[in-house]
Amino acid sequence: MKKNRSGHSRRSYKDSKPSAAILDLPVAKNDETVIDIIGMNHDGEGVGRAEGYTLFVQGALPGEKVRVKVLKTKKQYGYAKLVELVETSPSRISAPCPIYDQCGGCQLQHMDYAAQLEWKRQLVVDNLERIGKLRVKGGKLDTEQVGQAGQAAGADEANSILVRPTLGMSEPWRYRNKSQVPIGVTEGGLVGGFYARGSHRIVDMETCLIQHEENDKVVNRVKAIGRKLGISAYDEETGQGLLRHVVVKIGFATGEMMIVLVTNGDKIPHLDEWIALIREELPAVVSICQNVNIRKTNVIFGDVTRVLWGREVIHDYIGDVKFAISARSFYQVNPAQTEILYGKTVEYAGLTGNETVIDAYCGIGTISLFLAQHAKKVYGVEIVKEAIEDARGNAELNGMNHVQFEVGASEDVIPAWKEQGIEADVIVVDPPRKGCDPRLLETILEMQPERVVYVSCNPSTLARDLRILEDGGYRTVEVTPVDMFPHTTHIETVALLTRN
Length: 500
Known about the structure:
The chain has 13 helices and 24 strands.
């Protein structure tokens, strides 16, 4: 026990942390216990209970009985390590990736793909009910209300939301068109691969089963050339060294490839030799770029990008729409599922060719141009200036002159459009993970389009925003989850709302 200046005893912060005994918990750190896994949280961890106390267990699946070792306890819940499978779920499979247990990129490879799709749908349902307080057909709230109110509630079933099965992939591997590989150094020289789970230690990697095979090949050749030329790797702790990341992009439809070397400084030694070797060994590469990032940060890209050789962009298609992709462009990483996602968006928009559509958060115009194939006029708005420049270029590339893009915040630009007499039949939103800005939701309620199509990458903020739109006079009719990132816990969702 430490003493203060007056000589009296005082507890250190460490001493004062409440123990499991003080909190009256049924388990303490390092205890081993056997629990039933009753569910899975949004991070893909199994959820079990020890005498009513919740434990999260990495790698455990619903329906399993497992022996665990407690790693950490908090007042309401704790974390435990899987020690032994006592009873195994029929959904459990052997992860095909040899480094799955080390890498943090995938979380669900130990789960059968059909079970992944079911779990992702249930994750959406749970968020709609728990956060949005929305009734889902056949869901918990729907069943409870029918039970309480009998036939009256049954008659009101039309107000329940239909959540469709998750749209998955027939071949859920090798789907990513962009690889971002951190570079480090070991005693053996330059390495590049992935950050070990829960750390910033770089582990060398030859192949990634969710990356396009050509991306793997290019990364490996670039690493080998870097080693041959004696290129130094960036050290996060010292801020020294040159090469931070190798970013590779491929157009699935065109086969065109781009390499971006992210460097800690302007000058690249042996540059001509490096470019010559890349061109000689990797003929599919049509663009080699450099991005300079000298900041001490986890953000991959810096502000300065230049073309070292070849073209400024590569091209790819989503359906019949052609896109130019630059070094910094945001472009969906799974083009096959992007077409499915946007197809569902067009279906929910109910376009006949006579509608005016506003696409909030339009990015480089991917959804806008997809919608423009079926609409009379499309307006896109995005706060990132460079993205709007790309969007305008992509509209020109496709000869779509009935699409108009503007830079700014949706909640500022859309009311200004309304003042100009622009009325939208459909508003499409595809916000970042934090969901829609509250002022944009107010703007939608003021504009009163017939339909709102909400594309979401986060079920919890989707549920929150749907509740606000429902309270403002809209009804959520139908929701479809789309699996854009198989073997991870991420899920995209498309929701259709109509005006009451």
